[in-house]
Design a protein that fits this description.
The protein has about 290 residues and is α+β, with helices and mostly antiparallel strands. About 25% of the residues lie in helices and about 35% in strands. Helix 5 packs across helix 6.
């Protein structure tokens, strides 16, 4: 018998997540499903609630929020044979695009009720899980800039503004990239390693990545003029940047990136280290409701 825990991040989507509470009750009360709702109270609380729900016999745990909420929820239930559900109520919502869930709360809750699942891969970087993309390069500086401006500018526009303002002074970095034992030395704007396609609120940086491929897609954006990079950046939203000559694409299961100079490691929008990223694919690691 299914038992569903909904975990709501009240800060997600400028409060949009809280708007789902009445709708969840109205829809679930018409079913015979056992369920409850918890609201997180602080950073890290989502993972605690998720872990406790596993201990209390819940079969399905649903993250109501953005990508950060989903990742925390996953961390609480990983390797426990529990279904991960998603109701997108954040500002970016990159991960849900990969499992065909849109920001229509009615539709998302209906999918939770139906309970169809698929098994997906998860990424691991420096012993930290990620769902979407790990990036090293200009992206780390952009993330820092975005944190400064997102209180004024929300979602993708904040990332776009931060990208162009960072680009004005950014210098490409020398990196060593090892992909399943093959070594490449490059001077790059960015190296992106994707389990999923999207980051930054909808940018399709690794457009060939699939959640069930058991492979990572590696996209290397090599040094070029700032003007050319600015033109190429516009194509990231469609994934067509990979067809430009300064861009290389590889696939692999184990990727290691080492930078000559300090370079931040950005995993799903979180800075989790510096200068070295040791990245693995964890195949068939999680069941997701879709």
């Amino acid at each position: 018998m299914r038992k569903i825990k909904f975990i709501i991040n009240p800060a997600a989507g400028n409060g949009d997540a809280k708007k789902t509470i009445n709708l969840i009750h109205s829809k679930l009360e018409t079913t015979d499903l056992e369920y409850s709702i918890s609201i997180s109270g602080y950073k890290g609380d989502v993972e605690r609630i998720s872990s406790e729900a596993v201990d209390n016999g819940y079969t399905d745990i649903v993250a109501v929020g953005g990508d950060g909420t989903v990742l925390e929820t996953f961390n609480g239930l990983y390797n426990k044979n529990i279904n991960l559900g998603l109701i997108p109520a954040g500002t970016g919502n990159d991960f849900v695009k990969m499992v065909n869930i849109n920001k229509n709360f009615d539709d998302a809750i209906d999918k939770i009720i139906k309970g169809n699942t698929k098994v997906i891969d998860i990424g691991l970087v420096n012993e930290t899980h990620f769902l979407n993309v790990v990036a090293m390069g200009i992206d780390g500086d952009i993330v820092k800039k975005t944190e400064q401006v997102k209180k004024i500018i929300k979602g993708s526009p904040a990332y776009i503004y931060s990208t162009f303002s960072t680009l004005l002074n950014y210098k490409c970095k020398n990196v060593r990239i090892e992909i399943d034992g093959e070594i490449y030395n490059r001077k790059v704007y960015l190296v992106a390693v994707g389990n999923g396609k999207y980051f930054g609120g909808g940018m399709m940086v690794t457009p060939g990545a699939e959640l069930d491929s058991e492979n990572l897609e590696i996209v290397i954006i090599n040094e070029m003029s700032r003007m050319k990079f600015a033109v190429l950046f516009k194509k990231v939203f469609s994934g067509k940047h990979i067809y430009e000559s300064p861009v290389e694409v590889f696939y692999g299961k184990h990727v290691k990136i080492i930078a000559d100079d300090p370079l931040m490691v950005n995993a799903d929008g979180n800075i989790i280290g510096e200068s070295t990223a040791d990245i693995h694919i964890l195949p068939k690691a999680q069941k997701v409701i879709y």
